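Notes, p. 3: input format for complexes.
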Amino acid sequence: MTIKEALTWGKEQLQESCERPSFEAELLLAYHLKQDRMYLITHDDEIVDDQESFEKLVHRRAENEPYEYIVGEASFYDIHLSVEKGVLIPRPETEILIDMVSKIVEEENITQIVEIGVGSGAISVILARKFPQLKMIATDICDAPLKVAKQNIETFGLEKQIELRKSNLIDMVSEPIQLVVSNPPYIAEDFLLESNVVDYEPKEALFGGRVGDELLKQIILDVKAR
Ligand SMILES: C[S@@+](CC[C@H](N)C(=O)[O-])C[C@H]1O[C@@H](n2cnc3c(N)ncnc32)[C@H](O)[C@@H]1O
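Output follows (226 residues plus S-adenosylmethionine):
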């Protein structure tokens, strides 16, 4: 199968599951070949090595598995973060939260932040990179996010700035706290989500309780009590 044929085949397979089947077929083939998308255009009559592995990638995507889990990374802010099943894929909206927190850090000369629900480390990693004076404690109740966040913290050499702690909210944080940041789970438990989200992303990162805002309210109460 040539690159051109592989793209046509991939597009057909992804027709049902993807809004942009051609684009996603290109992304997956480029990832498989360890090349950029331009290479596919300029080498479209080249034979695809290990065609079976490429087909497996396309089948996973056709089953609605998010692209980020298939390739093991997500683009966020100005970096790429490792992600895997069990860890929320960072969302572009969270960049707004980071910009708001950054403003407070600058205006209030904040030097210490606690993040609740670190996930992949998206928020803590970006904040630590932006503010080298900042020390952060980042908690999560689940093991998978703590493992992946550790990996991302190491990739960017931020071990001295970010300390990870397994904790329910801030239960295991006894230090004085200047600022708390969190993107907690906030979806109501009976809310219908798309298959690529609900079948693949961790429930602990999505659902905040029956109404959805229970954890958010608990965070406010816990932080107020300090
Ligand atoms: C919506 S995700 C946010 C992940 C990451 N901060 C981001 O913005 O991409 C929420 C995270 O909170 C964690 N979490 C859920 N309940 C928690 C709790 N009671 N205490 C600490 N972390 C919790 C989940 O495991 C998940 O990693």
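The chain has a mean pLDDT of 97.
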